[in-house]
Amino acid sequence: DSSLWRSAHKSKINMAFKGEDDLGSLPLPVQRMHLIQVDSVQRWMEDLKFMTDCECMCILQSKPISVEKDEQNELILSSQYSTCDNLQLLLKRAWIISTELTRIAQKLEKNRWQRVHSMTVRVNCHVRSMINEYNTFTRNSSGEMHQFEKLLIDKCSEFTAFTERCVQTEDEQILKSMKSCINETLATVAQYFGQLIELVLTHEAQNLLRQIELSNSVYVTESAISSLFSLTQEGAHLCRIIAKEGGVAALFKICRQDCFRCLYPQTLKTLASICCVEEGMHQLEKVDGILCLADILTDNTHSEATHAEAAAVIAQITSPHLTFTQHLSSFLENMEEIVTALVKLCQEASSGEVFLLASAALANITFFDTMACEILLQLNAMKILLAACSDKHIVDTPYSRDQVVTILANMSVLDQCASEIIQGNGVQLLMEMLFERSSSGNSAEVAACERVQQKSAVTLARLSRDPEVADAAVKLSCIPRLIKLCRSPTERNNSDSVLVACLAALRRLAVMSPDGLEDSDFQQLVKPRLVDSFLLCTNMEESFV
């Protein structure tokens, strides 16, 4: 039985590569006697682990065991996965090749010719395998792609031949003269490889978008969108390719068809990923994407999941970290509707994730227009957000608290905000946020905790211009906590931004309540220039006695 044969020999090959044969415990003379008695295939596999040759591996990898046509087709079909799986395999192989090319350049600089040659052979193997694997699952690749495949394979072969000659010579002058030629060949290989990958990814993006645009089947469309989303997770470059090929327009077309309502959450999630790049934002503006998002958010017949993913797109396109803001003109036209819908989503959120997405969108909106803060005040958003913070099932992570305190900090520039904070017991919440610490030690969570501490101190500093807020902060012992954060680097996780914010808040409270500080604290943290107090605190060493 051929399948049993393959299974048995596969296990033996695995043993040979892992060095887990059953001879390891025998004395060396007994091992040799044993090897003489076994058949030639077994002997070859024993030797293989000591003399592995990448070119042999390449040949074995590229050819099926069976030579019969039907069995060959069966073998190829049995290894087929979904488009998404195949693309992941391709991207993984591409990443390996890219890494190997970088390492070859490094070894070439050090004149380590043996390593350069072995790595070149390995790249040759990976390139051939990648092309072979891709051609097994793609059906309509272009002539241009085949041309680049041939160019890349030929150049890899040439590269391998060059490095082989370098290994075989010891003449330093010859090696020196060949080095520049090898560098040029390496650069050409990298260029052809990059162009081929670009063509392949563009081709696959086009195929997926064609499925999305032409199919009336929910199942086919869902599969294509899922594969497209997986591509967006591979980095900004792929998002640019998808945007240039019309991905944003195709996805918004889905969001405008009632027959695909069940696909709205996944579609919007994919859109949020594509809109992390400028090309995606330009496309969103061209197809009136913001108006579509506003319609979805204000339509009460949509599911909470759909509203949450629409909020995620809003959060993405309003991110203060983005340098391109051409889309904001059309956003301002729909801002009141969007903000109202987002506040409602925060109020009615059934989970922490939904609240996080909605509050993140609101937090970003408050950065670029003060009108948003005024709309939030009119909608009693402060009361809604403060109430949500008391529900540990809704505001359950530092990330959610970061969004809430961002909104509070941006709203605190308005004079009317102080009374809202007092009524909603907001000063107590800000005091609690000064104690924010990470429970997991995860770097992203630690950074979120730092932002919560910093923004709560900033909010206190801004609000404490109101005597009533300052008095509430003093009564809640905010001053001792601010002093602790200034003097103890570990309390603020050595964050300079937290230190500056705490010094500012402390100085504002000291003006309103000078009796709350000891003389040493006043002399060191309040009286000097801010920069001098900052330098004093950053140079402090904690005592562990």
Question: What's a concise summary of this model?
Answer:
This is INSC protein. This protein has helices at 2-18, 28-37, 40-48, 54-62, 69-78, 83-109, 113-137, 143-168, 172-214, 218-232, 236-244, 247-254, 264-274, 278-286, 289-298, 304-317, 328-333, 335-348, 352-368, 370-378, 381-389, 398-411, 417-423, 426-433, 443-463, 467-475, 478-487, 496-512, 519-526, 530-538. It has 545 residues and is mainly α.
Can you characterise this structure?
The structure is a single chain. This protein is mostly helical. Among the domains are: 123 residues, Up-down Bundle (Four Helix Bundle (Hemerythrin (Met), subunit A)); 132 residues, no CATH class. The protein contains 30 helices and no strands. The chain is flat and about 90 Å long. The N terminus is likely disordered. Pfam families: Insc_C, INSC_LBD. GO terms for molecular function: cytoskeletal anchor activity. This is INSC protein. It comes from Pedionomus torquatus.
- Amount of helix: over 70%
Order of helix and strand elements from N to C terminus:
HHHHHHHHHHHHHHHHHHHHHHHHHHHHHH
Number of helical elements = 30
Write down the overall mean pLDDT.
82
First-last Cα distance: 75 Å
Shape: flat
Counted beta strands: 0
Class by SSE composition: mainly alpha
Assembly of the depicted chains: single chain
Low-confidence stretches: 1-37, 50-55, 57-81
Instruction: Please outline the major beta sheet.
Output: none
Strand percent estimate: under 5%
Radius of gyration: 32 Å
Organism: Pedionomus torquatus (Plains-wanderer)
Pfam family, one: INSC_LBD
Domain Protein inscuteable homologue C-terminal: 93-545
Protein name: INSC protein
